[in-house]
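Hey, sorry to bother you again with one of my protein questions. A protein chain has come my way and I'm curious about its shape. It would help a lot if you went through both lines with me. I owe you a coffee for this, so here goes:
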Amino acid sequence: MKLIAIVGASAMLLMSTACNMADGAKKDAEIAAEKTADAAAATGDAVSGAAETSQVKTALLADSRVDAGDINVDTNEELKTVTLRGTVKTEAERKIAEEIAVAKAVGYTVTNNLTIKP
């Protein structure tokens, strides 16, 4: 009779341990999935910011009203901000560059730090 009780108790202990291990593995998998999703989101932000920078710079280079050779475009995807830096020859070019950036970077705030250097 004691033997049956010991075997029964051992079986229950093994089942309890197996359940705890399964729960632990499930939680570990959930944490790994969350970390993977966070990393993917960060990568997506970087790619999206680079695409925004490229679109604005390409539009500036394509517009004959602006000499975009000395214009640097930086995008902060997290803050949804596009910043123009560098020099242009006139105030008109400065304003046109900003208008182009605003038109291409929909949903972003454009900060125009361009200076005039005739």
